[in-house]
Amino acid sequence: MRKYLWNIMVRIYPTWLRWIYKMDLAPTVIISWKAKLDKSINPRGVHIGDYTWVLSGATILAHDHCRRLKTDTYIGERCIIGINSIIMPGVRIGDSCVVGGSCIVTKDLPDHCMVVGNPARIIKEGVEVNEYGQLVN
Asked: Model-level pTM?
């Protein structure tokens, strides 16, 4: 029963974010309902590609009040954003990237890489993620 409810919630939440906040989310994106997407100042600045997973506690920002910055944040296709990670405003994450848990991504990431740490550093390149959120190699 719990798994059934979770499957319903991960389909409803992105749809709700698209309708209410006008976020640019692909129809196949999976977002944990505990993830925190920037809904306050610039919700239309969040762009997430197909088959991307945003896990529990991840924060995706599209504004920085201290620097008076209001910009777009892009996450590519087939990415995994780890638990409690923070994606800073204006960052572009390429396709098929894995962001480790509790990372703080402050700079753009190229395609097919894995990052960990604070600030996030590339530890592996040539990573491939399929549409089910599994590493292929």
From this structure: 0.89
